[in-house]
Design brief:
The chain has strands at about 20-25, 35-40, 45-55, 60-65, 70-80, 85-95, 100-110. It has about 110 residues and is mostly beta strands.
Length: about 110
């Protein structure tokens, strides 16, 4: 009988799951005419970003479908904020695959 305390854990199972590793806007706050929403995913089939103002009105929707499975992907959306008022906006990020992951990002516009 061995009395060692080592545990061997196989972490390869994680490679089969869908993940949303990072979701953010840059620059944040946006002080020019454009900002970028960046999502880093794995095993996602599609994604959607809905941007709302603080009153709850839908301002913009970004979508990507038919994403490649089993790879880490960086998806970026260039957001033209020329016609928007300065203030705080909420981006609701939804990533779809075998399940769904949601995340909320706050974005400020200063221009």
């Amino acid at each position: 009988i061995s009395k060692n305390r080592y545990v061997n854990i196989d972490l390869d199972w994680k490679n089969n799951f869908m993940t949303l590793d990072f979701a953010y806007a840059y620059p944040n706050p946006i002080d020019e005419n454009y900002g970028t929403i960046r999502l880093e995913t794995k095993n996602a089939k599609s994604l959607e970003v809905k941007i709302y103002d603080l009153a709850g009105f839908l301002v913009k929707v970004f979508k990507k479908e038919n994403l490649i499975s089993n790879v880490n992907q960086i998806n970026e959306f260039k957001w033209d904020v020329n016609n928007l008022e300065p203030g705080v906006y909420i981006a609701n990020v939804e990533v779809f695959g075998d399940s769904k992951i949601e995340k909320v990002i706050k974005v400020a516009i200063l221009k």
